[in-house]
């Protein structure tokens, strides 16, 4: 349990709530592309689920909340009030459920890895573990 607490506290501590930071070149190469509007819509929809205390409907929902968590926790963009609400609901209840349902195991570096879904929960960024916000040009 201490291990999970460190993971969650460490990840939340990385998010920068007071400023926008540019996404660096390395970060742009990692992640599943999504628009800012779609990303925010996902965050809002899961906040509603969390507030009701509902369980998630399927494994894809667990994968999605992990990706949302990982993306918000990178601290590479402004953390809105909604993102803070999402993080507060995610940890510890939904984080624990995600770890269990995704069959994730602890790894060195205070994160979990699901081999079955090739997904990091916290830890190093991988293409499958995080969203990349696409800016409209």
Order of adjacent strands in the largest pleated sheet: 2-3-4
Count the DSSP helices: 5
- In angstroms, what is the radius of gyration? 14 Å
Helix content: 40-55%
Termini Cα gap: 44 Å
How much of the sequence is in beta strands?
Answer: 5-15%
Uncertain stretches? 1-28
Q: What is the total number of structural domains?
A: 1
Coarse morphology:
globular
The assembly state of the depicted protein chains is single chain
How many β-strand runs?
Answer: 5
The major β-sheet equals: 3 strands, antiparallel
Order of helices and strands: HHEHHHEEEE
Supply the helix-strand structural class. Answer: alpha+beta
**Average pLDDT reading:** 82
Describe, in plain words, how this protein is organized in 3D:
The chain has 137 residues and is of the alpha+beta class. It has one domain (2-16, 36-134). Helix content is 51%, strand content 13%. The longest helix is centred in the middle third of the chain and has 21 residues, at 81-101. The chain is globular, with a radius of gyration of 14 Å.
């Amino acid at each position: 349990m201490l291990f999970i607490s460190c993971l969650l506290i460490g990840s939340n501590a990385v998010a920068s709530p007071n400023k926008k930071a540019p996404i660096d070149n390395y970060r742009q190469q990692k992640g599943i592309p999504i628009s800012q509007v779609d990303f925010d819509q996902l965050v809002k929809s899961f906040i509603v689920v969390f507030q009701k205390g509902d369980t998630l409907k399927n494994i894809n929902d667990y994968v999605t909340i992990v990706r949302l968590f990982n993306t918000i926790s990178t601290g590479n963009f402004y953390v809105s009030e909604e993102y803070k609400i999402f993080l507060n609901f995610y940890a510890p209840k939904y984080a624990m459920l995600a770890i269990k349902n995704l069959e994730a195991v602890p790894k060195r570096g205070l994160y979990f890895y699901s081999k079955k879904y090739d997904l990091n929960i916290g830890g190093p960024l991988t293409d499958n573990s995080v969203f990349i916000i696409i800016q409209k040009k």
